[in-house]
Amino acid sequence: MKLPESELISGEITLRDMQLSQEVKLTKKSLLRWLALSMGLISPNESRTLMLDVLEALFYFQLGEKRDPSVPDVMGYLKSGLGKGEQGEKAVRYHLLQLQNLGLVERRKGRYCFSVSPLSEKGDFSATIDFVYKRRSDMAIAKIKEAYRELSYSFSKRRQPQVELVQFIKKSQSGQQPAAGQG
Predict the structure, then answer these.
(1) 76 exposed, middle or buried (CB, 10 Å; 0-12, 13-18, 19+)?
(2) How far apart are CA 90 and CA 94, in angstroms?
């Protein structure tokens, strides 16, 4: 059964609290997998690696080349042997769009870069994480607290039978007292 409130979902945040072992720190590939898993970009049982390859290409261009790649740049990186090999442009665009929808990546004039918070410098991925995940989680937490306050208020109100409320409304509208035996 689908809950009616499920239609109100505007986004989801997946963060995983993972150990950052020394073994993970040994290779770029391992660090990329760790980042993607911890940020919820891939599932723990993920067998497809294109998201990882696209993420690797973005880091390569942003950190190594100090420039914003276009889709053809990312495709070239993947085909050059630095990535995993042949991938379809449609699939690459899909993963870039997923990163864009999460707020991690921005597209400007056909080029992609990590989102920049208002108070950080371009290329500061740590600030991007703070900006995107903290902002979204803070907004979600604020809404949860508001819902709790509403629920708390609804439980703390003195419960009155529905009939009395209807009679009060009728009384207010007509300016009359309820009939004997109804109040």
Answers:
(1) middle
(2) 6
At 183 the pLDDT is 46
Helix (H) / strand (E) containing 31: helix 28-38
Q: How many residues does the chain have?
A: 183
116-128: pLDDT as tens digits: 877 777 778 888 8
Report the alpha-carbon distance of residue 102 to residue 110 in Å, rounded. Answer: 18
Name which of 111, 112, 88, 110 is nearest 102 in CA terms: 112
Who has greater pLDDT, 177 or 4?
4
Question: Among residues 101, 88, 78, 106, which one has the least CA distance to residue 12?
Answer: 101
Among 90, 51, 54, 101, CA closest to 73:
54
To the nearest 10°, the Cα dihedral for 34, 36, 41, 46? -60
Other CB atoms closer than 10 Å to residue 107's CB: what's the count? 15
Give the C-alpha separation, 47 to 33, whole Å: 12
Angstrom distance (rounded) from CA 179 to CA 166: 13
Class of domain 19-115: mainly alpha
